[in-house]
């Protein structure tokens, strides 16, 4: 469906105790190339070579997939109209917007739009 709400997996976040030890494992030992690092938000993005999704190591989030959507406000509205709920209202982030919704079964979905581009 071209009008599907969830477009792709933007990233999978993996919690680590600190970025340096996370990079030592995922970059240095497993071979994933570093795309970007943002110490202010406790995250670093690494390449997943067979697609456009990123592996994001994080010191502040849980293990989760982040779903790419065309527009966070529109996706939130669609999920709510379909019977889901809002967990976290849309907010601005450096690359666009993010919100967290839950499906009727209690699964949380992190929705991200890249309306301001990707991290460099």
UniProtKB/TrEMBL annotation:
Pfam families: Glyoxalase_6. InterPro entries: Glyas_Bleomycin-R_OHBP_Dase, Glyoxalase_6, VOC_core. Coiled coil: none annotated. Residues 8-114 form the VOC domain. This is VOC family protein. The lineage of its organism: Bacteria, Bacillati, Actinomycetota, Actinomycetes, Micrococcales.
């Amino acid at each position: 469906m071209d009008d599907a709400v969830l477009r792709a997996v933007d990233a999978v976040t993996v919690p680590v105790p600190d970025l340096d030890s996370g990079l030592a494992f995922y970059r240095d030992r497993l071979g994933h190339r570093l795309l970007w690092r943002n110490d202010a938000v406790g995250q670093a993005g690494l390449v997943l070579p067979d697609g456009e999704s990123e592996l994001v190591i994080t010191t502040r989030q849980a293990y989760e997939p982040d779903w790419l959507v065309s527009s966070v406000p529109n996706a939130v509205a669609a999920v709510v109209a379909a019977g889901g709920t809002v967990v976290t209202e849309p907010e601005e982030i450096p690359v666009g917007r993010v919100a967290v919704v839950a499906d009727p079964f209690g699964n949380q979905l992190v929705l991200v739009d890249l309306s301001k581009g990707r991290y460099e």
